[in-house]
């Protein structure tokens, strides 16, 4: 059902403008992977049928909860092993503090992306994690 709605143009995925701009630049030199609670197929549909056009060309691969839950540090270790990159050489962006904690526990540098509508963060989150409101910080 979802696939048909995407393919017919009835649904376009909302993606922040800065995300497309940054993925387009960074993907030329750094492989980008998506890790989501949604299935790999759902992720691919979301990025293929975005408001900004097909963004799948910027993405090297996808992970879902088959690799493990996003709040478990072992999941990030498995991803690092799968892409053959040491955890300390990966940057994980999220808007969920528990996911940031899990990634950080696995040795993965983490940045929390604060956007309107996100769940509130704990009072000490800004001391424990790098923060940004835009992906454009990755270009500087």
Automatic annotation (TrEMBL):
GO terms for biological process: methionine biosynthetic process. GO terms for molecular function: hydrolase activity. It comes from Gnathostoma spinigerum. InterPro entries: Enolase-ppase_E1, HAD-like_sf, HAD-SF_hydro_IA, HAD_sf. Pfam families: Hydrolase. SUPFAM superfamilies: HAD-like. Keywords: Amino-acid biosynthesis, Hydrolase, Methionine biosynthesis. This is Enolase-phosphatase E1.
